[in-house]
Write a structure and sequence with these properties.
By secondary structure, this protein is of the alpha/beta class. It contains nine helices and five strands, in the order E-H-E-H-H-E-H-H-E-H-H-H-E-H.
Length: 212
């Protein structure tokens, strides 16, 4: 990239929009370091049943702590001159909690206002969207009957899915510039190339990592 240093890109979106595929492609083409949430947090999330009934306030606090940890890992890589692609960041947990109606938007923002100054700001967030029917089909094809709680909500409730998509859009915009891509009619390769075009349009490219 040519905007003056290693880039920090975030890929956000509701389940079934192609986040993991697009993040992996961008990681390869940019020669970047890939992050999801820290593995220690992912293990805790499963063992503690974070999305399966934990009270809203501690659930939010744990997610924000995981995001702060992720931000510090990103800082280390950027300081070493390595670009970073994150598959999800702060907007992901905030949007799920808001879609659940677990905490009102004002309370979520009050928590985020304390955390935001300590988070690394992405150079660009790619927000992937898709029609609910398309996303639900993708989730079912990928996960079969073994759905996570959030995947299950995404498939079973178009209204929950819509609320989360709207919350994602709003929360992502508070941490930096956003470029939106509708993947409903795109196969994985086309979605990845369209995402690359958005990154190049926003941040530029020296051409060394152009997809073939």
């Amino acid at each position: 990239m040519t905007h003056g240093g290693p880039s920090f890109l975030v890929v956000e979106g509701t389940n079934g929009t192609g986040k993991t595929t697009v993040a992996a492609a961008l990681t390869e083409w940019l020669g970047a370091v890939a992050f999801h949430f820290p593995p220690e947090f992912a293990r805790f999330r499963e063992e503690a049943g974070l999305d399966r009934g934990m009270a809203p306030t501690p659930r939010l606090a744990y997610y924000l702590a995981g995001t702060l940890h992720l931000s510090s890992l990103v800082d280390d890589e950027l300081a070493a001159g390595r670009p970073v692609v994150c598959d999800r960041y702060a907007a992901a947990p905030l949007s799920a909690l808001e879609a659940d109606g677990a905490l009102p938007p004002g309370e979520l923002e009050a928590w985020m206002a304390m955390v935001r100054p300590h988070l690394r700001r992405p150079d660009l967030t790619l927000l992937l969207t898709a029609e609910h029917a398309v996303a639900a089909e993708r989730i079912g094809w990928r996960a079969g009957a073994d759905l996570t709680p959030i995947e299950s909500r995404s498939v079973s409730s178009p209204e929950w899915y819509r609320r989360r998509a709207e919350a994602l859009r709003r929360h992502a915009a508070t941490t930096g510039p956003v470029a939106e891509l509708d993947t409903s009619a795109l196969d994985p390769e086309a979605a990845s190339r369209a995402a690359w075009d958005l990154v190049v349009g926003a941040l530029g490219s020296d051409g060394r990592h152009r997809p073939r």
